[in-house]
Specification:
By secondary structure, the protein is α/β, with parallel strands linked by helices. 29% of the residues lie in helices and 25% in strands. The two termini are 29 Å apart. Bound molecules: S-adenosyl-L-homocysteine.
Length: 224
């Protein structure tokens, strides 16, 4: 199959199936047109193993191996919408690259994206996927990202796609003091609260956005 055909999708990954997903996101309250356009134009099926690619445009999280998942499209849309509502996105940090779906989406809205993944084969897969999509404004790091990426701070937004029990202080410190925005699930294994934190100088404003379910943010890195 040529890359072109592969990117456009066929059958269950066709344009019509993708439009149905868009309709669902709108029904659930996603209003940012730029975010909706990016989700529409990002082929989610290329991020999945072939055996699961027919389910790519269902609004569900799906397994990607190594005990990890690709995020649910609604959650990616919501997190991206929240991050982009806070104004300029010159520099964004993502913690938990996985197969790179959220990375691809935010890379179309932000000038520069820094992304960290602790499982090496997943990071390599994400690099391959984003290369296939021609995305070049992303810098990758194989590391435990729970303490952020200090050398590249401050960030206009930090998106964490794995859940810590409590928010590490380092993440607050790496937010831009002029309205830097942290979107992060916080809590135990089965259910967490999605939080939106905005920094203004040394002040922090926290908003609770409801329950979500992410994989846990773990410490240490994995080579294989
Ligand atoms: N952003 C992905 C979601 C991947 S699931 C998407 O769009 O589909 C979350 C990812 O976070 C997993 O790949 C997991 O390995 C990674 N992760 C967990 N703890 C981490 C840590 N401390 N540092 C970096 N990545 C971490």
């Amino acid at each position: 199959m040529s890359n072109q055909l592969n990117l456009n999708g066929i059958g269950m990954t066709s344009r019509r199936t993708r439009e149905r997903l868009l309709g669902r996101l709108v029904e659930q309250g996603i209003v940012n047109m730029q975010v909706l356009d990016v989700i529409r134009s990002t082929p989610r099926h290329i991020f999945l193993d072939e055996a699961l690619s027919h389910r790519a445009y269902e609004d569900v999280a799906l397994p990607i191996g190594h005990g990890q998942t690709i995020s649910q499209p609604y959650v990616v849309a919501r997190m991206t919408e929240i991050a982009s509502n806070s104004g300029r996105l010159d520099s964004v940090l993502e913690i938990g690259t996985g197969c790179g779906y959220q990375t691809a989406v935010i890379s179309k809205i932000a000038k520069k994206v820094y992304t960290i993944e602790r499982i090496k084969p997943l990071l390599e897969r994400a690099k391959k996927n984003l290369k296939l999509l021609g995305i070049r404004n992303v810098e990758y790091r194989h590391e435990d990202g729970s303490l952020g990426w200090e050398e590249k701070a401050p960030f206009d937004a930090i998106i964490t796609t794995a859940a810590p029990q409590t928010i590490p202080d380092e993440l607050y410190q790496q937010l831009s003091p002029e309205g830097g925005s942290l979107v992060i699930p916080v809590g135990g294994d089965n259910q967490q609260d999605l939080k939106h934190i905005v920094r203004s100088g040394q002040k922090i404003h926290t908003e609770n956005l409801g329950s979500v379910r992410f994989v846990p943010l773990l410490t240490g890195q994995v080579q294989t």
